[in-house]
Design brief:
It holds the Pfam family Epimerase. The protein is an alpha/beta fold. The chain is built from 11 helices and 13 strands. The termini are far apart.
Length: about 325
């Protein structure tokens, strides 16, 4: 079976491409001309250049039976609002229309728990829950919500689409890295003197990749599935890293108003002075919430794996070290 994959150069996509190859699929990957191909180096796949708003997408997809639409722009910078909309919302609309025209039999669309929102007082939420879009923090989360609505429009047109909502993946091939991967890098560099009181749902990225394939094989058309595993505080996450690496975890909690103030100055003031900000305000706002989720539906209906988080963190650390990142 020939699978068309977007976002194959990224974290989830690179793990998904490898799994598809292991399972005997032939893979055609859409990559932007400017994208690094390091995550796909040496893999026996067909690479085609283009972007999600390419008017020739349906021609590029000819001959493929299934689509994994993993690609998305991730940015917490407020200046990227329009770019987020073009990539995540219009790009999703375009590729789903192209898939319909190309005769794609089934699509797995990679949304995010960001599109679902968070529960009150840190209560884990499932696929039935939905925060009002105006309560979603930041343009990234809003763009993923509206992109998911594009998938639902495609469903109304008769397309076979299954939606998956990954939580916070950790593991190998986090090449950019993601915000969570950046936490690991800063921890390894001993640049985390304190932590904020937040929480997240963590899952091995290889389980996320398997969740995509399971969604293709077992998912119900029109349903969404949270691909998550363990709810844990940031402090517990850092303590786990400490046990793996031997590096002391920070013991001091920092009040949320301090990073909020720094981020506001960074993004609202320094940007006007022509300086590049380093702390996104929306990212700090997100950290004031406990982002906990219930993935039992995916475990029950798809058979989603729940691999140990310690193993995922060990492999994430090993991969980052193999990439020769300077931790000095």
């Amino acid at each position: 079976m020939l699978a068309f994959v977007t976002g194959g150069t990224g974290f989830i996509g690179a793990n998904l491409v490898r799994l598809l190859l292991e399972q005997g699929y032939t893979v055609r990957a859409l990559v932007r001309p400017s994208s690094s191909l390091d995550n796909l180096k040496g893999l026996p796949i067909e690479i085609v250049e283009g972007d999600l708003n390419n008017p020739r997408l349906s021609e590029i997809m000819q001959g493929c039976q299934v689509l994994f639409h993993v690609a998305a722009l991730y940015s917490l910078w407020q200046k990227d609002q329009d770019y987020l909309y073009r990539c995540n919302v219009l790009g999703t609309r375009n590729i789903l229309a192209a898939a319909r025209k190309a005769g794609i039999e089934r699509t797995v669309y990679t949304s995010s728990v960001a599109a679902i929102g968070v529960g009150e007082s840190g209560k884990p939420v499932n696929e039935v829950y939905q925060s009002p879009v105006e309560k979603l923090i930041g343009d990234y989360k809003k763009s993923k919500y509206w992109a998911e609505q594009e998938a639902r429009k495609a469903l109304q047109m008769g397309q076979d689409v299954v939606i998956v909502n990954p939580s916070t993946p950790v593991g190998p091939y986090d090449i950019k890295p993601t915000p969570t991967g950046d936490i690991i890098v800063r921890f390894l560099r001993r640049k985390m003197p304190a932590y904020v009181n937040t929480g997240l749902n963590v899952i091995d990225v290889r389980d996320v990749a398997k969740g995509h394939l399971l969604a293709l094989e077992k998912g119900k058309t029109g349903e969404r599935y949270i691909l998550g595993h363990q709810n844990m505080t940031l402090k517990a996450f850092l303590d786990e890293l400490s046990q793996i690496t031997g590096i002391p975890a920070p013991s001091s909690e920092i009040p949320s108003w301090i990073p909020l103030s720094v981020a506001w100055i960074d993004e609202k003031v320094l940007t006007l002075l022509g300086k590049t900000p380093s702390v996104p305000l929306d990212g700090v706002k997100m950290s004031t919430q406990l982002m906990y989720y219930d993935a039992s539906k995916a475990v029950r209906e798809l058979g989603l794996s729940q691999s140990p988080i310690k193993t995922a963190l060990q492999d994430a650390v090993a991969w980052l070290q193999k990439m020769d990142i300077d931790y000095a």
